[in-house]
């Protein structure tokens, strides 16, 4: 395997090329985009502040926003920011996918109590969720290739379920804003473009225009609907194009452009609320036991780690070292966790393209 000497991105990553400058083409793209991002960061901050103020001043809403709260480090830090820095009254929402670490549940209980925020769990039907995960893990052609540099099929399916459920909840409760946390490099840069156009990092419109972004809700929902059945529509939004009278809250990804990302600060901050890292997850998740199985499936099916784009971005920004990124790739949950998750899903290692030695 060849890796970029600057960011640790492997040559198996889609579109990877080494440039005459001695780094990969993604490093070049990153530098160009970061220069552009710095040029309009003031505009982003103004728009972000405006969106938060609008949410705070919405009449009739019990809460200012819904936070998609996984119990992991990033969403815990976001909950801290929303309550203490932005003065919002958030509703913390956790989607229980059946594979959350017991420690994550304990963390959630401690943090929402310490911050004095309302919290709600939603647990979708187990048969529907497991069918979705089985399809995402075993059918390597389920989702569009354009999505897969950002996350595994399993995580994309789960995140879409989380975000769609939060949007539906926000619509029902009259809550104007949904907040979800992605680390730098994890969410598509098109989210910033959408935010500058619409004040939301998820694009919604009633008409189709030439320069609209890709319809991400549709290209995730449609194949899952075909594979799993109509029950999936209880949890997913069909399209970014809305029917007459249909509306959803705005969405913000603060880490993506607005919040300076520093893992040391994040851990130091959330530990004051009693948060502690689970021991049954991998190095790229602080809440989900399914994640290692999703990582293993993508490595064996596609040849690269689904978090390497995110980690390489952190390396380029000086927030993670080259060696740390490579080490995180290799730090997975224990074989006992993998065995248990596969058993719950009714799968064998061979079903996800992995050898029996993974357990």
Describe this structure in words.
The chain has 359 residues and is mainly alpha-helical. 47% of the residues lie in helices and 6% in strands. The protein is built from 14 helices and five strands. A five-stranded parallel β-sheet has the order 3-2-1-4-5, with helices on both faces. Helix 3 (73-85) packs across helix 10 and helix 5 runs antiparallel to helix 6. The chain is globular and about 55 Å long.
Secondary structure layout plus pairing:
Blueprint: H1 25-39, H2 41-56, E1 65-68, H3 73-85, E2 90-95, H4 102-115, E3 118-122, H5 126-138, H6 153-173, E4 177-179, H7 190-198, H8 216-228, E5 250-252, H9 254-257, H10 263-271, H11 291-302, H12 308-316, H13 322-330, H14 335-345
Parallel strand pairs: 1-2, 1-4, 2-3, 4-5
Characteristics:
359 residues, mainly alpha, five-stranded parallel beta sheet, 14 helices, 5 strands, 47% helix, globular
- H-E order: HHEHEHEHHEHHEHHHHHH
Q: In percent, how much strand structure appears in the residues? A: 5-15%
Please give the radius of gyration in angstroms: 20 Å
Largest sheet: 5 strands, parallel
Summarize model confidence as the mean pLDDT.
Answer: 91
Counted by DSSP, the helix tally is 14
Estimated structural class: mainly alpha
Q: What overall geometry do the principal axes of the alpha carbons give?
A: globular
- Placed side by side, the strands forming the largest sheet appear as 3-2-1-4-5
Low-confidence stretches: none
Number of strands: 5
Oligomer: single chain
Q: State the helicity in percent bands.
A: 40-55%
CA distance, first residue to last residue: 24 Å
């Amino acid at each position: 395997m060849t890796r970029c000497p600057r960011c640790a991105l492997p040559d198996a990553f889609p579109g990877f090329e080494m440039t005459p400058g001695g780094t990969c083409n993604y490093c070049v793209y990153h530098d160009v985009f970061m220069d552009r991002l710095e040029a309009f960061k003031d505009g982003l901050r103004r728009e972000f502040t405006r969106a938060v103020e609008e949410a705070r001043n919405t009449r009739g809403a019990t809460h200012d926003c819904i936070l998609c709260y996984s119990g992991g480090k990033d969403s815990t830090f976001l909950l801290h920011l929303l309550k203490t820095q932005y003065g919002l009254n958030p509703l913390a929402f956790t989607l229980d996918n059946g594979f959350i670490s017991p420690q994550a549940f304990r963390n959630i209980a401690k943090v929402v109590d310490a911050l004095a925020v309302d919290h709600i769990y939603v647990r979708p039907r187990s048969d529907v969720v497991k069918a979705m995960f089985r399809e995402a893990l075993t059918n390597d052609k389920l989702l569009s290739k354009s999505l897969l540099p950002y996350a595994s099929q399993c995580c994309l399916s789960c995140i879409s379920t989380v975000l769609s459920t939060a949007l539906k909840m926000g619509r029902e409760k009259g809550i104007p804003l949904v907040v979800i946390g992605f680390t730098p490099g994890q969410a598509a840069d098109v989210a910033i473009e959408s935010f500058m156009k619409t004040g939301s990092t998820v694009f919604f419109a009633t008409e189709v225009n030439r320069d609209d972004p890709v319809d991400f809700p549709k290209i995730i929902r449609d194949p899952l609907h075909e594979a799993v059945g109509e029950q999936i529509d209880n949890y997913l939004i069909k399209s970014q194009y809305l029917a007459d009278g249909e509306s959803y809250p705005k969405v913000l990804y603060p880490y993506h452009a607005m919040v300076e990302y520093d893992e040391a600060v994040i851990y130091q901050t959330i530990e004051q609320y009693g948060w502690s890292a689970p021991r049954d997850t991998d190095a790229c998740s602080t809440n989900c036991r399914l994640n290692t199985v999703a990582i293993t499936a993508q490595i064996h099916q596609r040849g690269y780690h689904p978090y390497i784009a995110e980690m390489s971005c952190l390396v380029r920004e000086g927030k993670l070292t080259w060696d740390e990124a490579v080490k995180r790739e290799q730090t997975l949950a224990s074989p006992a966790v993998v065995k248990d998750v596969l058993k719950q899903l009714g799968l064998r290692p061979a079903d996800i393209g992995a050898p029996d030695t993974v357990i």
